[in-house]
User: Which sequence fits this backbone?
């Protein structure tokens, strides 16, 4: 019964979404207040209906209702409760429902928190959001209905893909979707602004928090996925340039560009057309990502539900929304006149450079991802584009970005001088270069990658600190410290996020440049050296898990005779899904991870053991976390909440002069 | 039978399968050769996997390829010769780093090209923003009038 109600709620949500996408936009054209007012309650009702539907599906998974074909295909009674719940979105249909739920949540949030939006803009934004909802609800009901029943329910399910039975991957999709779908808000704002034909500072201020939120979620989602790959895939890699990874990375790059260009719209009323275009494209890349993951056109490590029919439908959604928005853009962009005047050397120009680098970097990822498809269609060449291409073609853009970031961040608006902006940065530059030189001198015969990573990382981090410190003005340290606390949250966010980026750049190059690897056969009781450590294979035994069997090794890591850690790398086998997984034994540390993997037993006795020292691995996840923390800090800036607060003058008066 | 096995493997590995990759018994005695072998295998694609190199993959076919690479190196082939040997037999699909030959030149030049175009457009845009439209130089009449006013 609950299942049928959930199914019914989904159909009802479609009806509400159709109302939400038509009446308000018509009302906004006709200046009909009553029709425009339909938008907000419709968005909230749509959200509640989809939420109910999602709850119904979750209920089916939790109670292992095997009359539902989706539950049969993706669950099992023996599965731990956590993975019964996360199994809801561990498949195509359920993850699509989660996608629609988050879409509706963003629509409802715009209705709840959009109190300071002009009514016509709000009506149009919610209507566009409703249209996206209609497209995806129809897609789901026609091709990927999660509520299909089986006539003869089996006794038990086929279990969730064991690789997905992991805390890191369990929460990777929701965060990613929050990011992907969050960009739909920026898209809706862009399209609504194009329909109105007006983009001003206020628009820049409204659209930025949504983009920022989406970017923060995307950052966390991508970091979770990368962390998962690191500890689960068994050789310590953290990024594979796989099409699906690229699919999430492209919107991230464009969202980062959009964040920065929206600042120019907000502060200087320039770059308007470009910002609108970015907002449209960023969501476009989210849709392309959906297409890549779900169509199976581009084969990838973790594409699921490969189905040409679904692919065609998503391509249709992509064509309609991108085609419509870009046509509208072509018609209206000319009328978006820029106001601000600025010199060639200025903060504005620096942000243009930032956008250029991020957008071209995104394009590199895009062309590398689709090139095998293009080459096969046009020239009948079957070829691959893998990590070596991306490393060569993508990295230079990140190097350039990190190199100009501190200078750009210190550049004044309107008119600046590079020499003057660089003056407070000299200590940071000298310190980074000398530390880089020291590292270069200390390492023996390895690539320049490590030292370059040190220089860039330190330069960005110290640059952010310098920028932040100069914001406190001049005078005694005590006075400056007290002013520090009163700096707007946006400044805190900027410094934090930039520092996080620097740490990430450093960690990536350190992990690639300084990794130590060892592959060998080890007898039980045998020891071998790994860097400064001595590792002993104490024991290998079989262990029974809740829904798997495991071969577990006990390995002792010692340094100078003292025990550092005892690790238990595992090789699991999930009998229901008939799939093996590796669970690496990892000793996490501040400066390095010791990473042990057990392989197959050897014919001559002993076990194949792979061991790694992963330098600064934790810095990578920390860097990503700090970046998203910076985003959150900036998001909490009260100027966003009271910004266009002309509606309530009392509030506006309470804003301290900043 | 082999084709069937391949098909089964393809079906069974939709998600990145756990990786054992290089096995201890494959490692060459000569560390210099082994380093070269590792470097070469990182650039070769495992044919039955998704986007994994043979260095990372645990598929039996990847193992065969790794052994083949080592065989060629031990036989005295140079790195390019080894790659050419493999590409001759398996096609350019095995190259994770696409060549710059033929149409692939578009792939390699696309980003630098776009960057240059972007730089050009940005430079034009920035120059236009630096001189606001609508503010024109004074006409000679206006200039004369201004001089008159400013005259002490």
Assistant:
């Amino acid at each position: 019964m609950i299942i049928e109600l959930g199914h019914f709620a989904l159909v009802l949500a479609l009806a509400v979404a159709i109302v939400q996408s038509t009446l308000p936009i018509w009302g906004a054209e006709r200046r009909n207040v009553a029709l425009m007012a339909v938008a907000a309650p419709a968005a909230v009702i749509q959200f509640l209906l989809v939420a109910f539907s999602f709850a119904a599906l979750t209920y089916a998974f939790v109670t292992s209702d095997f009359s539902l074909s989706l539950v049969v295909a993706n669950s099992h009674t023996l599965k731990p409760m956590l993975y019964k719940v996360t199994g809801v979105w561990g498949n195509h249909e359920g993850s699509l429902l989660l996608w629609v739920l988050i879409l509706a949540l963003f629509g409802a949030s715009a209705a709840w928190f959009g109190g300071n939006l002009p009514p016509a803009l709000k009506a149009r934004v919610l209507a566009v959001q409703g249209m996206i909802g209609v497209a995806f609800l129809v897609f789901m009901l026609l091709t990927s209905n999660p509520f299909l029943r089986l006539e003869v329910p089996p006794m038990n399910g086929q279990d969730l893909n064991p690789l997905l039975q992991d805390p890191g991957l369990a929460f990777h999709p929701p965060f990613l979707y929050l990011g992907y779908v969050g960009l739909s808000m920026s898209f809706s704002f862009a399209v609504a602004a194009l329909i109105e034909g007006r983009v001003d500072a206020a628009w820049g201020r409204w659209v930025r928090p949504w983009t920022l939120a989406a970017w923060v979620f995307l950052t966390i989602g991508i970091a979770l996925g990368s962390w998962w790959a690191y500890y689960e895939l068994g050789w310590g890699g953290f990024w594979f340039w796989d099409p699906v990874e690229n699919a999430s990375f492209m919107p991230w790059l464009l969202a980062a560009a959009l964040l920065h260009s929206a600042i120019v719209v907000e502060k200087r009323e320039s770059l308007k057309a470009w910002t609108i275009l970015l907002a449209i494209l960023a969501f476009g890349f989210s849709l392309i990502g959906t297409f890549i993951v779900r169509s199976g056109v581009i084969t990838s490590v973790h594409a699921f539900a490969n189905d040409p029919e679904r692919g065609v439908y998503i391509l249709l959604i992509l064509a309609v929304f991108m085609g419509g928005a870009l046509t509208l853009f072509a018609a209206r962009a000319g009328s978006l006149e820029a106001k601000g005047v600025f010199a060639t050397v200025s903060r504005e120009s620096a942000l243009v450079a930032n956008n250029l680098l991020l957008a071209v970097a995104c394009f590199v990822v895009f062309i590398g991802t689709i090139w095998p498809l293009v080459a096969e269609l046009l020239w009948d060449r079957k070829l691959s584009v893998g990590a070596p291409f991306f490393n060569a073609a993508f990295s230079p853009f990140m190097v350039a970005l990190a190199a100009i970031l501190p200078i750009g961040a210190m550049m004044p608006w309107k008119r600046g001088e590079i020499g003057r902006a660089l003056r407070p940065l000299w200590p940071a530059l000298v310190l980074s270069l000398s530390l880089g030189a020291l590292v270069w001198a200390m390492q023996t015969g390895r690539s320049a990658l490590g030292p370059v990573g040190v220089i860039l990382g330190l330069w960005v981090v110290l640059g952010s600190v310098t920028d932040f410190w100069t914001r406190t003005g001049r005078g005694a340290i005590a006075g400056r410290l007290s002013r520090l606390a009163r700096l707007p949250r946006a400044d805190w966010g900027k410094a934090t996020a930039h520092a996080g980026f620097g740490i990430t750049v450093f960690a990536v190059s350190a992990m690639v440049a300084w990794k130590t690897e060892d592959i060998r056969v080890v007898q039980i009781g045998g020891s071998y050296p790994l860097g400064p450590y001595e590792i002993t294979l104490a024991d290998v035994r079989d262990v029974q898990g809740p829904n798997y069997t495991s071969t577990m090794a006990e390995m002792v890591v010692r340094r100078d005779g003292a025990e550092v850690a005892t690790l238990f790398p595992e090789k699991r086998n999930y009998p229901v899904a008939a799939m093996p997984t590796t669970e690496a034994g990892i000793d996490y540390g501040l400066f390095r991870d010791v990473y042990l993997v057990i392989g197959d037993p050897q014919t001559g006795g002993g076990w194949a053991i792979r061991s790694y020292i992963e330098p600064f691995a934790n810095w990578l996840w920390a860097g990503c976390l700090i970046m998203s923390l910076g985003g959150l800090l900036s998001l909490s800036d009260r100027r966003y909440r009271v910004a266009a607060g002309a509606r309530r003058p009392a509030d506006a008066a309470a804003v301290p002069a900043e | 039978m082999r084709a069937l096995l391949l098909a089964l493997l393809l079906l069974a590995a939709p998600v990145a399968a756990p990786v054992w990759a290089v096995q201890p018994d494959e490692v060459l005695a000569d560390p210099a050769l082994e380093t070269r072998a590792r470097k070469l295998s990182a650039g070769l694609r495992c044919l039955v996997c998704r986007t994994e190199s043979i260095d990372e993959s645990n598929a039996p076919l990847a193992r065969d390829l790794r052994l083949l690479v080592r065989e060629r190196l031990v036989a005295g082939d140079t790195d390019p010769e080894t790659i050419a040997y493999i590409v001759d037999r398996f096609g350019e699909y095995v190259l994770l780093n696409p060549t710059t030959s033929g149409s692939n030149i578009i792939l390699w030049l696309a980003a630098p090209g776009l960057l240059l175009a972007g730089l050009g457009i940005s430079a034009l845009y920035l120059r236009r923003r630096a001189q606001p439209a609508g503010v024109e130089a004074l006409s000679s009449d206006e200039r004369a009038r201004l001089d008159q006013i400013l005259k002490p």
Observations:
- Chain B has two domains: 2-94, 104-150.
- The helical segments of chain B are 2-12, 31-42, 60-74, 79-90, 104-130, 140-150.
- DSSP finds six helices and no strands in chain B.
- Chain B touches chain A through 50 residues (CB under 8 Å).
